[in-house]
Prior knowledge:
This protein is of the alpha/beta class and 336 residues long. It has one domain (12-335): L-arginine/glycine Amidinotransferase, Chain A, CATH 3.75.10. It contains eleven helices and 16 strands. The chain has a four-stranded mixed beta sheet with strand order 3-2-1-16. Helix 9 links the parallel strand 11 and strand 12 (252-257). Helix 2 (30-45) crosses helix 3. It is globular.
Amino acid sequence: MTVLVPAEWAPHKAMWLGFPSHAEVWADDLDLAQAQVAALARALAGPGKERVRLMTGAPEGEAAARRLLSDVPGIEITPGAFGDIWLRDTGPIFAKGPNGDEARGFRFNGWGGKYEMEGDDTVAAQIATASGAPLIQQEIIMEGGSLDHDGEGTILTTGQCLLNPNRNPGWTREAAEAELAASLGARKILWLGDGLANDHTDGHVDNLARFVAPGVVVCPVAWGRGDVNVYAYDACARDLAAMTDAQGRKLKVVRIPSPGWIESHQGGAAPASHMNFIIANGAVVMPTYDGDPRAAELAAQALQELFPDREVIALRSDAILTGGGSFHCITQQEPA
């Protein structure tokens, strides 16, 4: 294999993190979103044992980041330019290539043309330059949150997103698999169906199912009455239970509670998920929301059993969610 994307639990050289920087984007949620991202940065730099490279997108954002975090060792504030903080999707996917570390960049079109913002299409190049890894630009449109990797060539994705005609019109499974093999060293693609309701990403897999070890995948089970994703969760678990990875292993499927019904600031159900955790060198940081605290407690306990050598930290992500995502969406790991 000439290209390999390491698993998220493999050692990291750094963790990139986007910081809310534009008042016109975040409006009344700006201060709380900045505070919640700052709390995440502290957790990543402390128990997470990460070199945090906090990317800001405007002078006002840089000033706020320095006010909140200048006293924290291990956090480097890196001024940049972006439309918003979703570095998982706008930044590169780091891979091990034939000549060492590479930053694989993909075209970005604002999640199918929904939110095209100035600067977002330059983030991959900015991060690659700052990291010192060569940027290997790909011509396909794709976001990092649409894929999850096991470090052995198996990739989880959803057909709802990856085959959506608003990204790469006319794509078939065969065409997508060929592109992922060439660009990211994929040996086997595991196709799931639909993601969460009301997710403007068209069903990113990092809200639905995640690898936590070779051959082990977590996905949600609906919590409480009125969970609008109950059928998507059950279909996901059923599909995963019938799958094998690139090594031929039958997948072990672990289900953890969803947050249940979380009200969107726009009305209806928000695409809130405990799956949007980030695996750091020394910790796993899981987002929580303004829902049933028992669901969050049980989800964190389940993750702690899956990651006995890392501290599981649950942090609030309500304000970040108003932008459409959570912790995994705003981070990108740089492998060691």
